[in-house]
Task: inverse folding
């Protein structure tokens, strides 16, 4: 009806007009422009601006989230300072305890800022995919060694599957971040299953990716993830269980970083999970070409 009114105005009175029309329930958003033509009649331009509107929403949400996430530890620290200046002034035991809590909150802020900066870095590199070769087997080895203490503390056995070596086109440091984030999540959220499988396998071009890829699978046997969360899991700050994630010291940025790194590698992340069945995260990274390219001078 809005469009008809615009067209009517253009035809009857030679008036130009524009409107933005949103489908109810967060559907598509279209911009409609109507311009009268000199010799009678009118042109109607319909532009789907859904993506731009969605990007704008995510940008607003992101800023609000960053503000909120930074404010909570800061509020806690300010509160402890007040207590230390007042009631707990002469109380050595309370002082030690509060300082410990303050250190933890400061550490949380530091981690959040580190993750935000890492994300910004990867985003800046998005147009330049990595060109070097990386051995994903060695990357997995390093990541598992780094997480061994955490796994042991959580009573989780880390089991490795697949070849020792598998060469991909990629940046070893960023790929190690991918493995670490996925395995850390599996330990933190799926640790009750007692073991985490980390598998590596070549996969022909097909369903997921247009080129042959290395599939890195991190599988846990914990409570799994409700399917309603799956589409949004890689969004910044999205948590299936905010309470649990915060208590575990999470920033909610881990999977967003994973996704950005894989996107830069022209790879993909596939998440499969059913409640009660554990979760499996598959990172697909393009395999390196068979023979190393001859060095150019
Ligand atoms: N293996 C898993 N099993 C169950 N839930 C998971 C699993 N991996 C991730 N999740 C859910 O996905 C959410 C997002 O994970 P993500 O790694 O992005 O953030 P985080 O772990 O909360 O924080 P960070 O990784 O920055 O420490 C988690 O909060 C958790 O609810
Ligand atoms: Mg995480």
Result:
């Amino acid at each position: 009806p809005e469009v008809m009114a615009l067209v009517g105005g253009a035809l009857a009175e030679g008036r130009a007009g524009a409107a933005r029309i949103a489908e109810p329930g967060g559907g598509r958003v279209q911009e409609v422009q109507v311009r009268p033509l000199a010799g009678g009649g009118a042109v109607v331009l319909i532009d789907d601006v859904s993506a731009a509107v969605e990007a704008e929403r995510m940008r607003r949400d992101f800023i609000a989230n960053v503000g909120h996430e930074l404010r909570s530890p800061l509020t806690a620290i300010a509160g402890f300072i007040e207590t230390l200046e007042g009631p707990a002034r002469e109380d050595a035991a309370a002082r030690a305890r509060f300082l410990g809590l303050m250190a933890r909150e400061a550490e949380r802020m530091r981690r959040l800022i580190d993750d935000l900066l890492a994300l910004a870095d990867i985003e800046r590199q998005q147009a330049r995919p990595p060109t070097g070769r990386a051995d994903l087997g060695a990357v997995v080895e390093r990541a598992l060694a780094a997480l061994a203490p955490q796994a042991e503390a959580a009573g989780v056995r880390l089991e490795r599957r697949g070849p020792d070596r598998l060469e991909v086109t990629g940046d070893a440091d960023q790929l190690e971040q991918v493995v670490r984030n996925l395995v850390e999540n599996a330990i933190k959220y799926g640790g009750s299953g007692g073991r985490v499988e980390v598998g590596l396998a070549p996969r022909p071009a097909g369903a997921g990716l247009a080129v042959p890829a290395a599939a890195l699978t991190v599988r846990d046997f914990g409570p799994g993830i409700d399917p309603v969360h799956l589409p949004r899991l890689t969004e910044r700050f999205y948590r299936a269980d905010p309470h649990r994630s915060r208590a575990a010291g999470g920033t909610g940025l881990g999977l967003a970083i994973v996704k950005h790194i894989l996107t830069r590698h022209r790879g993909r992340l596939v998440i499969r999970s059913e409640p009660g069945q554990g979760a499996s995260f598959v990172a697909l990274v393009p395999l390196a070409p068979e023979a190393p390219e001859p060095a150019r001078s």
Summary: The longest helix spans residues 50-85. The chain has seven helices and ten strands. Helices lie at 2-13, 50-85, 92-124, 136-153, 172-190, 242-247, 254-264. The chain has a mean pLDDT of 90.
